[in-house]
Amino acid sequence: MILARLTRALREQNWFAVALEFVIVVAGVLLAFQITAWAQARADTEREALMLTRLHAEAETNVRYFSRGLERRRDNDARRDDTIQRMLANNFEGADRESMVFSIFSASNVQEPSPSRIVYDELVSAGLTSRIGDEAMRIALAEYWLEIDRLRTVSAARQQQTNVFPRAVAAQDEFIEIEYDADHPLRRRYSINFERAAQSGDFMEFILFGNAQSREMTNMWSRALADAIALCRETARLTDQSCEPADEDAS
């Protein structure tokens, strides 16, 4: 219809009508573009809000993940400290010797962190890491994953030495015996003569070194948890939700 009116106006050399029809066409095109842009902007806003909600859920999950992992590491470190103190004091009265053996070998426990990152990877893939949330949240997100990358790098390096420590401890055959144990997943059980081992300066130095390395890893897990809590609180703030796991672990 517009084309017919425009053709007629041109034939009649009605330039006012031609200009009017042209303005109508341009305005219609611009309005259509604007409506499309509004719709796209609204869709993007809704998508970002949904991604932010999912990111908060993922952050809560990772707080729980690091809380549990840190609790296990701290428990192992505490038991190892008790073992070392008993050896230094040469006091083994009432000691759980199996637990003491486990505490010694737990120094070689290096778990590479594997927190959930499904939502984060989607954000990276969609190019939303610089747009989602606000600046404070984006800083928390960047700091959290930077700490995770550090922890993974150190864990990977330590995993190259995962079997070095237990093999070296087991090599102290004057203090250690290996027996068959049908109930053990690896069908072996270590027993340590702690009274004799405590008299060996080399053995104690080796144990203290392993303990220090284990505690260094525990400190890194603690920092990762702190950053996970910070991210969880930021996403909770923006989504008007709570961050119960973070509140519990921070108390």
Summarize the structure in words.
With 251 residues, the protein is mostly helical. It is 74% helix and 4% strand. It has helices at residues 2-11, 15-89, 97-105, 118-126, 135-159, 164-170, 194-197, 201-239, 244-250; strands at 176-180, 188-192. It is elongated. Mean pLDDT is 80; it is low at 246-251.
List the total number of helices. 9
Strand content: under 5%
Strand element count: 2
**Shape, principal axes of CA atoms:** elongated
Order of helices and strands: HHHHHHEEHHH
Mean pLDDT: 80
Q: Strands across the major sheet, in which order?
A: 1-2
Computed Rg: 32 Å
Helical content class: over 70%
Largest sheet: 2 strands, antiparallel
For the termini, the CA-CA separation is 72 Å
Going by helix content, strand content and strand pairing, the class is: mainly alpha
Low-confidence runs (pLDDT<50, min 5 residues)? Answer: 246-251
How would the blueprint of this fold be written?
Elements: H1 2-11, H2 15-89, H3 97-105, H4 118-126, H5 135-159, H6 164-170, E1 176-180, E2 188-192, H7 194-197, H8 201-239, H9 244-250
Helix pairs in contact: 1-2, 2-3, 2-4, 2-8, 2-9, 5-8, 8-9
Descriptive key words:
single chain, 251 residues, mainly alpha, two-stranded antiparallel ribbon, disordered C terminus
In short:
This protein is mostly helical. 74% of the residues lie in helices and 4% in strands.
